[in-house]
Amino acid sequence: MGTDSVLIIGSGPAGYTAGIYAARAGLKPRILAGSVTAGGALMNTTEVENFPGFADGIQGPDLMENLRRQAEKFGAVVEYDDAVSVDLAGHTKKVAGGNGQSYKARCVILATGSVYKELGLPEEKKLNGRGISWCATCDGFFFRNQAIVVVGGGDSAMEEALFLTRFGDSVTVVVRRDTLRASRIMAQRARDHAKIRFEFNSEVTAIHGEDKVTGLTLTDTVTGATRELPAQGIFVAIGHAPRTDLLAGQVELDENGYIRVAAPTTQTNLDGVFACGDAVDHRYRQAITAAGTGCSAALDAERYLAAVADADSIATALVEGSLNG
């Protein structure tokens, strides 16, 4: 495989939007979309109501499919492969894929996104898929007529809770604080639903069950008192962490692992390496803001490649002039 002009690591709104803009600029970008994570977190989302242009909303997977097809329409090449190691410091960037393929590019756009945070309890790994889940749309069906717990107080937790009311007898939302972080509209929808109740100032400190979840222990974050809560399903919705482990020692990261960029540009500390989406943004974390920074990264990459081409042309002209003189 030859050297690409632009290699985009990651898909989701940021990666696919970068692909659309880079492809329309004639750069023929290659997108490493991921072997099982293509499309990013929105592939696990039901209705997206706040992405501009869809007055009646759109399903998350449908939105990502539209973005992927649009990128390919203009000439982007989508590879369903994972980046497993990178060498981004040189003039030619090198990336090793999980399927054994090697990729080279003059410019790289990092759109690696984020992953679900875990509770950090020992039972979490053991009972993963046996009552513990991070995706209501994936697993909600398995908890019909059962008691369900959702852990978290943000918009994602409210969305999960509301979706799970279609299946469970009850949905209990466990929140560490005494209030919700969710937007007003999402919080009110959850509060108004007859099947949803809240456990505020509460933290999950143990999960019970051998072969499947049977309940959990809640600890009061104010008094320290503990209580047991029966449940057959636990859905964890406490946020995300940037997927940047691959990039440690390559690009500069902040104290929380997010990629540092020279705002308002998407330029990292390495020439020819740009970053966008949830791997950069720990403030907004919205599909539309990720898409916006994906656009910015593609424009920055285009300008970088043009500047490199101009510099190469000048250098060639000077050499030729010197030889001819």
TrEMBL record:
Domain of life: Bacteria
Cofactor binding mode and count: Binds 1 FAD per subunit.
GO terms for cellular component: cytoplasm
GO molecular function terms listed in the Swiss-Prot or TrEMBL record: thioredoxin-disulfide reductase (NADPH) activity
Gene3D superfamilies associated with the record: FAD/NAD(P)-binding domain (3.50.50.60)
Catalysed reaction equations from the record: [thioredoxin]-dithiol + NADP(+) = [thioredoxin]-disulfide + NADPH + H(+)
Keyword terms of this UniProt record: Disulfide bond, FAD, Flavoprotein, NADP, Oxidoreductase, Redox-active center
GO biological process, one term: removal of superoxide radicals
Cofactors demanded by this protein: FAD
Residue ranges annotated for the FAD/NAD(P)-binding domain, each copy included: 5-294
Enzyme class, first EC level, given as a word: oxidoreductase
Pfam family for this entry, one: Pyr_redox_2
The enzyme's E.C. designation: 1.8.1.9
Record-linked NCBIfam families: TRX_reduct (TIGR01292)
Assembly notes: Homodimer.
Family: Belongs to the class-II pyridine nucleotide-disulfide oxidoreductase family.
Protein name per the record: Thioredoxin reductase
Source species taxonomy: Bacteria, Bacillati, Actinomycetota, Actinomycetes, Micrococcales
Gene: trxB
